[in-house]
Fold Glycosyltransferase RgtA/B/C/D-like domain-containing protein.
Amino acid sequence: MTSERIIIAVLFAWTLLAVFSHLGDVQLEFYDEARRGVSALEMSRGEAPSLLTPPYYGAPDHWGTKPPLLVWCQAIWMKIIGPGELAVRMPSALATIALFWLLTWWGKRDWGSPLVGSLAAVAVLGNWLYISNHGARSGDFDAMLILFLTAQVVFFYRWVTNGESRWIWLAGLSVFLAGMTKGVAGGFLLPGIGVWLLLDPEGRKKLLKPGTWLIPGGAIALVLCYYFLREQVDPGYLQMVFDNELGGRFDETNEGHKHPFYYYLQLLVSDFGWRHLLPLLIPALVYLFLSEYRRVTLLLTITTVLFLVVVSGAATKLVWYHAPALPLLGMLIGAGMFHLGKLLSEKIGGQKGTFIGIALMTSLFMAPMILTTHHVLNRNRYPVMHESKSSLKDFMSRPEVKPPYSVVIKDYQPNFRFYVELARGRGEAVELKRIQRLRPFLSAEVQPVSEFEPGERVVICHGETWEYLFDRFQLKPKYKDGRCQLVLLGERR
């Protein structure tokens, strides 16, 4: 086995550690991840009104307007390994592993070495934000989206430079899968690819061929077919998509996520892992543009810059919106550092040169690898959401907390609902009760305020629910751990 293969094997083993270590240990995140988990749980139980509509409370989900590919995958994994955090996060984890091999394969085909792609994948996982929420280990859309977006770049490039029709078909398939994962976001890299096609001599020739337009255009048409089919079973869906994905988030600031234009550049520079890698981008670009890899380097540079300009121009900015740029930037860093290290080793010569070249590459990527390893092995030390939203799972597992009881929420608590549904699925006498109506825009159905009776055992984790019940009942605490406590409702006040 050559030294490159040994390094790739080590990096892949580390990738498995980074992606799967304690993957199912931490409670689902409060917002998107938990809502996807509830939708997948309902769909796996056959409670969806249609396969086209991810459900929430058995009705079409009118908050998450994205196509259902992710939820389908999560529901399938629930059928295979049972409902839980692992099934919710498995599609993202497997997409990340697939991204490792896609980049490694591309490195072998077009960058001079498979190690280039493996280093790029390590760079992606070295991003502190990406290994945290809405990334490689999270039950959200983004890991699958990034796999399919990166595949678009890879296969379009292979089609232009290789000429074989299979690559344009694979590019079209990637466009379709990206669209079925996250809708409009599935086309975020296409403008950059299109500009590169115009600038590249062979690309301009390809633009005159029908396949350039028919196959990707057909993929987009298939995604649009989903939207129109869902409108038939869920009237008003297209308007919600327009309000949420096309007009709302781009033109208006949603939920207070307003940041300056340079926000995503700031995130890249300040990221715990990428503050060690991003400075390498400048020497990498200088070398690559002066080398035989200038053509593919131009593709990644144009695509990355245009993508970041587009998402930076949106009024709503969230910390994971820049993540599709990570594999492209990682590929540039990996390629630049690999070839500079190779150049150095050749200048020195012999085993000494090989050793110094390997040591250089290892040292440059070691810091983000160590930080990521510490992050995933100590996941409870780095919670993404506020503590007040993250304590129910562990509390329900305490031996002192035995059914029957009701978990009380204020209104929208999808992570609490997920764990109540898991308990009910195990046959436990656990209910979910609300102290106010569930807001209509969360679901097609309005959930009413719950009724409580003296003698009922309830779990309370928030001050608002405690105050609501304290005003109505004598409360007798039975067990407390962290922010949650088991309480017996006494006489009415």
Notes: The chain has two domains: 3-381, 387-492. Residues 350-377 form the longest helix (28 residues). The beta strands are 55-56, 59-60, 405-409, 430-434, 457-460, 473-481, 484-492.
